[in-house]
Design a protein that fits this description.
167 residues; 0% strand; mainly alpha
Length: 167
């Protein structure tokens, strides 16, 4: 039993290290490499590949995130970054045949931020990030032509900010 327990602990440590490596790689691709590549002339194809790879990693991590607030916060930040990238560079969305990607990614980020904010150990900052996420989503929906969705998201963000005001 002790040997099996020891092996299980070692396997868990390896799995956690792998997840941490994937997180670092994704964050690097989204926040560092992409920003440098996108400025180069003719970089649309490479930018698209970076975004596709980062999306695949984030989606994989999302299926195994559980309730770890740190991992969930990193996932939300990654999805937010993707949403902002697609919003700022609609050509990438068109080239990947994902014209509404900005909204889709920001909806994922909002859902994750909501999970964190609803958790028993949620901090003021977690609830604030969840409220702010609705603002980014509202802007993306407006750019996508979804006025009704944009209004609902903006109202929800304002409602949540108002709830936080006394704090």
């Amino acid at each position: 039993a002790l040997v099996q327990h020891s092996r299980a602990l070692a396997a868990r440590a390896r799995a956690e290290a792998s997840v941490a490596d994937l997180q670092r790689l994704t964050q690097s691709m989204l926040f560092e490499i992409y920003e440098q590549v996108r400025r180069l002339p003719g970089s649309l194809e490479v930018s698209g590949k970076i975004v596709e790879s980062a999306t695949a990693v984030l989606d994989r991590l999302a299926t195994t995130a559980g309730d770890d607030p740190r991992l969930l916060a990193d996932l939300a930040a990654g999805y937010e970054q993707l949403g902002l990238l697609f919003g700022a560079h609609p050509a990438i969305g068109r080239s990947l045949r994902k014209p509404h990607a900005a909204v889709d990614f920001l909806e994922r980020a909002v859902a994750i931020r909501d999970r964190i904010a609803a958790g028993p150990e949620a901090l003021f900052a977690d609830r604030l990030e969840a409220a702010k996420g609705f603002g980014a989503l509202a802007q993306a929906q407006l750019r996508a032509g979804d006025l009704a969705g944009s209004e609902l998201s903006a109202e929800e963000g304002i409602r949540r900010l108002t709830e936080l005001e006394p704090q």
